[in-house]
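Subgroup meeting minutes
Present: P.N., E.W., G.H.
Scribe: E.W.

1. P.N. recapped why we're keeping a running log of single-chain structure predictions: easier to compare across weeks, and new members can see raw inputs and outputs side by side.
2. G.H. added today's entry (307 aa).
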Amino acid sequence: MTIDYRDATATEAVVLSGSDRRRTPHPRKRGTREQTVALIGLILFAIYSVAPIWWLIVNSTKDRRDLYNSNGLWFADFNLWKNLGSLATYQDGVFFRWVLNTILYSGVGAAVCTLISIAVGYSLSKFNYRGRGIGLGIVVGSFLIPSTLITLPLFLLFSQIGIVDTMWAVLIPFFVSPFGAYLAKVYVDGSIPDELLEAARIDGAGEWRIFFTMVLPMMRTGAATVFILLFVANWNNFFLPLTMLRGSDKWTLAVGLYSWFVNRSDSVVDLTALTITGALISVIPLAIMMIAMQRYWKTGVTLGAIK
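Output recorded in log:
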């Protein structure tokens, strides 16, 4: 009797392949499992992100007794309107002066810095001159240095100039951002073609005209992205205003609310509730700005990622 080993080998291969199929999970099941894990991770991240806002909303409705005796993540007696009234009248409504100061510092500082950053980024991207590589290295190295490290040298310099305790002591540092300049360069590289600039120069357009009539309109998405990032950074800046400003009428929201929190035990007014309520109100202008600039910001982030 003759045994055909080829048939036996084929039979074993079929058996092994069948067992492998039984052991290997189906691609659709594996994809569903991965999607479930990703969904759980996103839900946990969303809860982690929203939890501070929820805490602010809940505790801004409480008085001093409920703040310390009730659940910090759920409501007690509703005292939001009372807290808002106290916020508006305490120290002659200085809180709203802080709001206006913060909007001024953040908005004007971010707007001027965006224009300067686009000009610097355009120069680093589209002009060939001696030392351009060194300049780019200085820009990159500068935004790697924490801003708090240069606050003391700035304070000493502004003290000699005589502008400490003025709005210029806060605005002038906000006018310059190495990170904004580098980000603007990235956007210029991806959105401004060299051929268009050469065509404009051949037609006789000067560099200032090219920059203001061609580069800036084409950089609208990048400018909006740079602006919103700078605005948020300026809004949350704490150490610079704390160092430069003395009078409470010039403080920002961060510095003013911090002063209330530090002195909460020295006042007959419930400064803890006022601080929490003020922190909640301070989020609203920032949220409005983020929502208003959302479509430009999303498009800008996508462009930067592609680049």
